[in-house]
Amino acid sequence: MKIKFLLILVLFGLCLSAQEEIKLDNLNDFKAQAGNWQIVGDVTVNRHVDVHHEATEENDSKKKKKRRKKKRNAIEPPKAIVSTPGTGILLNINDKEKHDALITNWEHGDLLLELEVLLPKGSNSGIYFQGRYELQLKDSWGVKNPLGSDMGGFHNNWETDEAKIFRGIPPTSNASKAPGLWQTYKVHFQAPRFDETGKKTANAKFISVDLNGVRIHNNVEVPTYTGGPIEKNEVAKGPLLIQGNHGPVAIRNFKYQLLKESSVELTSLSHVIYKGAFKGLDELNENAKVATGKSNKIDILSVGEEDEYGIMYIGTLDVAEKDDYIISVGYTGGVKLIFDNKKIVEDNSSSGEGWLNEEVTLSKGTHKFILINIKSAAWRAPRLGLSIKSKSTNSKDFHTYDSYPPNINTVSPIFVQPDSKPRLLRAFVSFNGNGKRLSHTIGVGTPEGVNYIYDLGAGNLVGVWRGEFVDATPMWHSRGDGSFKPKGAVQWTFLNQPIAQLSDSNTAFPETGTAPEFVSKGYVIDKTTWLPIFKYRYKDVDIENRITPDPSNNYVVHDIQFSKSGLTNWYCKLASGEVEKMSDGAYLIKDKQYYIKVLTGQIPIVRKVNGETELIIPVDGSNIKYEIIW
Amino acid sequence: MINKVIHNKIKVIIVLIVIGFSQIVLAQNAPKEEDYYRITKVPTPEGVKVEGGGVLSLPDGTIAVCTRRGDVWIIENPTMANGYPSKFIKFASGLHEPLGLAYKDGALYTAQRGELTKLVDTDGDRIADVYETVYAWPLSTHYHEYSFGPVIAPDNAFFVTANVAFGNEEWWRGESRVPWRGWTMKIYEDGRMEPWATGMRSPAGYGLIDDELFYTDNQGDWVGSGGLWHLPKGVFTAHPAGLKWSEHKDSPIKLTKEAFYGKIDKRQVKKNGRYVKPENIIDEEDPDFVYEAKASFPEVQLPAVVLPHGILGISNSEIKVDKTGGKFGPFSGQVFVGDMGQSKIMRVVLEKVKGEYQGVAFDFRSGFQSGVMRMDFDQNGNLFVGETNRGWGSAGTTNSGLEFLTWTGRIPFEMKTVKSMPDGFEIEFTKPVDKSSAEDLDSYQGKSYIYKYHAAYGSPQANLETINLKGVNVSDDGYKVRIVTDNLRPFYVHEITLNGVKEKESGQITLHPTFYYTLNNIADGDKLELSQLSTKRSSSIKKKVAKKTKASKTAVAKKTKMVLTDAQVQPLLTNNTCVACHHKEKRIVGPSFKLIAKRNYTDEEMVDLIYNPQPKNWPEYATPMAPMPQVPKDEALKIAAWINSLK
To answer: How many angstroms separate the CA of residue B445 from the nearest CA in chain A?
Structure first.
């Protein structure tokens, strides 16, 4: 087969990140509240205690309560969430008296928001954008078909007037994690727009919402306020509000960026059109001039030629605010942008293409603007575009749509989904989504939506996720690259051969399996579950791995069996990263990303090798069974 | 009465006209491939995508097909006999782009990208429940690291071939990033692996011929043209990437990459801090050829049969020997080779000369709906063809599919085989030839050429030379013709077209009039005496007439620029291999001629682009065009003028 052209897609300008961070050393960014919100150092959740259940108890009859109280007097009931003093985490623990919402001192229109949130079992809260549009925070772990009232949904309001009813918008998938684990949100919010008379001209819109790295909303409009707004109206600006009356919630890494419309204007724009096979920008000359005119926007189609042309735009850039601006010029051929006689970007070519980006500080006032473009490359379509943004403004285009049309991927995606039986599919997989590419990996998806990736080359469970199975477009479209992408929020584990005989406790596990010590034997299908039983041989011991969903179809149970007993200096690595032991014997891994719980009685050891903290258990040949809960 | 007479007259005239027409129709009704071999599509159930990576006839009469989507289908009643559709049974799924199937002792074996896998149905429900890894090899996870196979060796072991990866910055250079990319592996049921041979670039085809392993490779860097190689243990064929592992303890090859590149320029040059892609050097003074490399390195294995690039395919695939005992027609025992890009099948006949395999290749059957990847004969002698083009583009109407080829029972007039003779070749026909046409030296036209051995992508036909016939000798039964020439060149492809040799019975020329013989060795034996040869040339009689027409033609040409018609340009496009990648209307591998016309090149600019293509001009086409300096300037100008007339 033939060699491949590397198509480098130039991605431009779309990657936004929140810049301001609320340190959470204090509550100065927020309005005063009853005291249910506090700054703490750490939080620990007992994942078995349901706060929703506790809350209902409060409303129970006095008789029942008394009965319970009696019971409880015997042993203090475990708390759902406990904290340690310190800073860095915002914690709400509401009770009958104190249950205020937390409201920012500042108000926002368009907003980028990033934060991490942690909820105990059964808890419920919400982030109200502009105090009016609630993105639901809720323990929705295990919900198969999420609603607007679930984690990541936009909550319905309870209006009865047809015109005001909002029925809620569920997330496109349930990407939420188990109680007591940190979950990340990344939101790009666009405020509603109003005309001078105060009439709404555009709905509030969530450009994107990512939960735990999974896109759960894409350009979703919320046409009115959701349930429980700060006020029952819509406005251009409002504060961010976090609900505090439905259960405990902890928040950290709170970052935001206020965005406004760019006030930069391009005025007095005129253009000169040239004809000729110009090979460089300096070849434009008076003699080649064919037309002049005025323009509102940059529009390469106004040249009227497919090729062998030049165009020069001259105008004034009106800057209302001094700021650092990111200037982006998209083009085919060659291009040069000049502000106030200073070159901003240049590609002195006749056949180039792409986007050129440059950050410049522009003072308040007017700036002389010159943009020159030539093209002498018949195979490239005419393209010229200019976009300007600053870190606090949305990007603004100064060109017509088809002068530089957006890069839209029109490939039909190829999704793979299990039907009534589990679906297995081998492919290359990038660990962590963008890390090391593994070559001998297989994805297993169950009809119940519990999925995992297993590395046959190391006998290792490398990742688990819930929801839809995989996107195989990268493997099967055109030539393909042999890989697929999991469609959910993958909880990645680690890269090692996890079962090994180690010469001493300071020896690291092998990076991967290597012949002749380690030999993969493939798998057989268990015809009762249609799930694979993986087999390999390590040091003359036959080892079998079964990875199955737990009975509630929420997480996985990893079962490992050995053909020999009496093994010495053998260990099994369960996890990599910081480890916290929980009261139920489970271990919290990697800064509260997931839980490991051993079911077969082996006592885990926490050790540090080469700077990496590991959770391991000794192996003697008896069965190992542990849960991965995320 | 008068009326009636007139009426009758008209009738007669009509009859005459009809007769006249039908005569013309008959005369034009030249034999076509489909008269002898019929293609039938096997419809797949909605939603089932058969990008055929493996096709295998099973002992129970079913056909097994493995697909790029990772499934293995068992197809019951694949020829749709009894007017009943075939049934598709999903035997296995989830495999990693498997590219081959073999059957042994009740199990199916397939090469996934990273391992040889044994698939077993232990409980008889026709669904595999064992996916056993026989042997796994490392991969760097480059997209081009395809693995092909297995083919079952006579000792019941398995052969698997492995593609090279390509460089990152040097995206044109084949690389063996991990063992044993660029190699053929021999794998045993117990999990042992024996590195067998290297030099593979994109070894998509493999098969046993006379119980010996053969493989096909694709044109590219270090592979001037596709071809068929005999692969005994320990040989090195073409691409040097795999030599990286020759110092490995298990390597049967001792030739190191240092020794190799010490002799043959790697063409790895940096300019302004960036690597420069090696291109064909036009008018190169002393180009390297593989046979010269063989003189330095005895491990080098020459291609047994070159399949000239662009003529006999552009991306050769499966090798299949006709063991149907005549059910597939008159070519029993011969070899069929598929091609992905041109969606066709070629025919090869091997002979052993001086202990080495070499032989002849012919076109056989084109017109498949997509790239021909894998083939196997069912028990009735139908040739099943698994198809895909995998994003590279191919002739035909689809990107993938499954078809089968059936012999109609008619015998085509063809060259059955061509053998090397000490003074030329012996051609054997399927039917007796018309003696007078076969004895006419003007019925033959020949040239010979060779391909360069270099780091550039592909190679033009180099050192072109006309083959002049000294004479011919036609056997008494009309089945054999010896052609004699002084222009034999060892290692060169000898391409001879029989444009005037007619079948005795029908007066038609052969269905495929050209043979391509790779003459690594010239056979020993008795030469023919001059007295045994016919040396007549019909052109010496016709000369006068030819002169006249020629004169009138040039007169017209002087007045206006002559643009050839579609029919006139066709032979030029075919001979110069343009049609390998271009079609008048449709995108194949390259852009359509109509699209090229839109670029507004002058004829001269276009000729220049034929000699020095600029792949960057066509960024949306995956396969870069190779320089074609062998196209004669006058022909290139005619082609360019024709393309420009399509605007």
So the answer is: 32
Q: Are B643 and B597 in contact (CB under 8 A)?
A: yes
Task: Please check whether residue B392 touches A, CB under 8 A.
Answer: yes
- Range A293-322 average pLDDT: 95
Assembly ipTM: 0.86
CB contact under 8 A, A378 and B315: no
* Paired sense of beta strands B344-353 and B335-339, if any: antiparallel
Would you call the peptide bond into B150 cis, given omega within 30 degrees of 0 as the criterion?
A: yes
Per-residue DSSP letters for B8-70?
Answer: HHHHHHHHHHHHHHHHHHHHH----HHHHEEEEE-PPPTT----EEEEEE-TTS-EEEEETTS
Q: Which residues contact A493 (CB under 8 A, 6 or more apart)?
A: A460, A461, A462, A463, A464, A575, A576, A628
| B602 interfacial to chain A (CB closer than 8 Å) | no
Give the tens place of pLDDT for each residue, A336-381: 999 999 999 999 999 999 999 999 999 999 999 999 999 998 888 9
Kindly state whether A3 is in contact with chain B, defined as any CB-CB distance less than 8 angstroms: yes
**Between chains, do B622 and A1 touch, taking CB under 8 Å as contact?**
no
What does each C-alpha distance from B105 to B116, B122, B381 come to in angstroms? 16, 12, 23
Q: Is residue A529 within 8 angstroms of chain B, CB to CB?
A: no
Distance (Å, rounded) from C-alpha B319 to C-alpha B312?
14
Structure tokens, A6: 């590397």
Q: Which two tokens stand for residue A606?
A: 């926490």
List the beta bridge partners of residue A186. Answer: A114, A210
Dihedral sign of CA atoms A8, A14, A19, A21 in order: negative
Considering Cα of A273, then A276, then A281, then A287, what sign does the dihedral take?
A: negative
Q: pLDDT band at residue A426, thresholds of 50, 70 and 90?
A: very high
CB atoms within 10 A of CB A591: 11
pTM for this prediction: 0.88
- Return the pLDDT at B555: 45
Cross-chain Cβ contact B94/A520 below 8 Å = no
> Is some CB atom of chain A closer than 8 A to the CB atom of B405?
no
Find out whether the peptide bond into B180 is cis, omega within 30 degrees of 0: yes
B378, burial (CB in 10 Å: exposed 0-12, middle 13-18, buried 19+): buried
Phi, psi (5° rounding) for residue B254? -100, -15
Q: Are B252 and B196 in contact (CB under 8 A)?
A: yes
Span between the terminal Cα atoms of chain A, in Å:
43
Q: Which residues on chain A are in Cβ contact (under 8 Å) with B205? A: none
The whole-angstrom separation of Cα A1 and Cα B148 is 12
- Percent pLDDT > 70 in chain A is 93
Are A273 and A141 a contacting pair, CB within 8 Å?
A: no
Instruction: Using DSSP bridges, classify how beta strands A365-375 and A323-339 pair: parallel, antiparallel or unpaired.
Output: antiparallel
Q: Which two tokens stand for residue A448?
A: 């119940």
DSSP B118-136: EEE-SSSSSS--EEEEEEE
Chain A 434-493, CB below 8 Å of chain B: which residues?
437-440, 442, 456-457, 475-483
* Spatial CB neighbours of B182, under 8 Å, sequence gap ≥ 6: B162, B163, B164, B174, B176, B198, B199, B200, B201, B239, B241, B242, B244
Integer-rounded Cα Rg, in Å, for chain B is 26
Partner-chain residue, chosen from B112, B144, B618, that has the shortest CB–CB distance to A426: B112
Cis peptide bond prior to B330, omega within 30° of 0: no
Sign of the four-CA dihedral A141, A143, A145, A150: negative
Contact at 8 Å (CB) between B307 and B227? yes
> What is the spatial distance between Cα B14 and Cα B10, in angstroms, rounded to a whole number?
6
> Is the Cβ of B646 closer than 8 Å to some Cβ of chain A?
no
SS (H, E, C) A219-242: EEEECCCCCCCCCCCCCCCEEEEE
